[in-house]
Amino acid sequence: MVVASRRHVGTFYDLDVQEQRMVWSLVAEIRNRITSAIRIEGFHVGFADSKDNEIHAHIHVIPKSPGEYIALPPDVDWVDA
After folding, report:
1. How far is it, in rounded angstroms, from Cα 48 to Cα 42?
2. pTM for this model (two decimals)
3. pLDDT tens digits along 25-47
4. Largest Cα–Cα distance in the chain?
5. What is the DSSP letter of 46?
6. What are phi and psi for residue 20, nearest 5 degrees?
7. Which domain holds residue 72?
8. DSSP secondary-structure letter at 35?
């Protein structure tokens, strides 16, 4: 799942505080819905930012299924959530 603001920005921190909260609220809702629908071990959450505004800043939310390996794109900053 990919989450992006309606307003085009190059980096997540170009969003104002209210927009950042809305994005995090949607990430939390997505995590809750996925967790209630399938068995998972956790999530990979990744930030895709562009300092030169080539891309629209967005956040990837990828569930980790038991026993599965996913090759995560290297151009995204990943955290385990």
Report:
1. 20
2. 0.81
3. 999 999 999 999 999 999 999 98
4. 39
5. E
6. -60, -45
7. 2-80
8. H
Type and span of the H or E element at 42: strand 42-48
The count of structural domains within the chain is 1
Residue with tokens 């994005």: 23
Any bridge partners for residue 64, and if so which? 42
pLDDT digits (tens, 9 = 90+) for 50-69: 776 677 889 999 999 888 88
Tracing tokens 């996913």 back to the chain, one arrives at: 70
- Look at the alpha carbons of 80, 43, 12, 33 in this order and tell me if their dihedral is positive or negative: negative
Residue 68, class by beta-carbon neighbours within 10 Å (0-12 exposed, 13-18 middle, 19+ buried)? Answer: exposed
Torsion, Cα of 66, 79, 58, 55 (10° steps)? -110
Give the domain CATH number at 28.
3.30.428.10
